[in-house]
Amino acid sequence: SQQGEEDPQALSIQEGENATMNCSYKTSINNLQWYRQNSGRGLVHLILIRSNEREKHSGRLRVTLDTSKKSSSLLITASRAADTASYFCATDRYSSASKIIFGSGTRLSIRP
Amino acid sequence: EAQVTQNPRYLITVTGKKLTVTCSQNMNHEYMSWYRQDPGLGLRQIYYSMNVEVTDKGDVPEGYKVSRKEKRNFPLILESPSPNQTSLYFCASSFTGRDTEAFFGQGTRLTVV
Asked: Which of A45, A78, B30, B39 is the most exposed place for a label (fewest CB within 10 A)?
């Protein structure tokens, strides 16, 4: 069963624009994480936000978390060609924190 | 260099022929996990281990076995592979699992014919 669902499934924007991806989940969580995957390669951790946090920044990344709506968003500002990748949210389950559940991802393409 | 190493990177095998995909990490992580990635389904957790000799099922454990005899190694065993196990497999490790970042291997692309 999938815990996180990303939206949109695919996103294409012009270089320099901002990209926003959303993640919704079903059950209460302890933490939510975002990962990036370049084509066919291993995932790379971007940012972790805890359930008692509402917003977090890391460089050009901004993550928000709304536990009442069971949703999170990832904003990438001033996009670059190198940001072209798939982005996944990952959540644990409050009741079974050892299981980490990934969504199906958003494919982001940056047009030059 | 901190890393998770999977081998092999690519494997083509026949139905029913037992195989093992190895995974090793050099970060002294307690938590290790295996995922499979299929188009449109994202990553699904197969098995995870919270420490040596402690393993548990993820969401799609059928047809797979794991063992954790040493902290650094977490092999994935397919006793009798079938074509529906054709997939891209990832091993990952982290300090505790839920609240620390996971480090991923480069993946093993398995084809079962």
From this structure: B39
